Amino acid sequence: MTSMIGYSPRTNTYTDIDGKSFVLHAADSCIGTCPFHKPTEHSMSDWPSTFNWDMMRLDRVCEHGLHHPDPDTPQELCSVEHECDGCCEVREAVECVPNPGSHRAKSLGCICPVLDNSHGKGYMEQGVFVIAIGCELHDHQLTSTGSV
Question: Which pTM was predicted?
Answer without folding.
Answer: 0.53
